[in-house]
Amino acid sequence: MHIRLSLLTISAALLLSACSKQVACDSDAAQSKLLHESALRFQARLQEEYELTFVNALNLGKSVPVRIAEQEVFNNTDIEKLARDTAKDLRFEGGRLIRRNYVAGELLCAGTLITPNDTRVPVSYEVSKDDNDGVAVQVRGI
Q: pTM for the whole thing?
């Protein structure tokens, strides 16, 4: 009985020590990757919205340039640049642990993205170690 209890205690300690080597939800590496992935998603959404605004303005008889987000837009290249530049200005705050998966070695985290116009968007993301002992971040919900 004591041997089983000892083995169980040692197994639990080894499992916890292996998981404690993971990065935290608010580590610099995790936040950097989260911001990169979020910016790509945000840019794609902005570009769709800006393209729709541009086409609608032209259909209503407005002439080029069209003002979008306080910028003059002449064509799709300007729209892509505007979306990319706007998405670069995302900020992140409040990375916190929601759930820890000891078996898979993953952390489910939550925080807040702040857009350039100070809109606060809740985000959930998963942090784990990648194959090269770096950090892998997967955005789960924005």
A: 0.76
Query: In this structure, what is the dihedral angle of CA atoms 24, 28, 34, 38, given to the nearest 10 degrees?
Result: 150
Tokens in use for 89? 């200005």
User: What residues contact 8, with CB distance under 8 A and at least 6 apart?
Assistant: none
**What type of residue sits at position 39?**
A
Tens of pLDDT, residues 69-91: 888 999 989 999 999 999 999 99
Identify the DSSP state of 98. E
pLDDT tens for each residue of 61-71? 988 899 888 88
Confidence category of residue 35, pLDDT binned at 50, 70, 90: very high
Contacts 24+ apart (CB under 8 A), 19-22: 19/100, 19/102, 19/105, 21/129, 22/105, 22/107, 22/127, 22/128, 22/129
What HEC string does 49-80 produce? HHHHHHHHHHHCCCCCCEEECCEEECCHHHHH
| Residue 65: cis peptide before it, omega within 30 degrees of 0 | yes
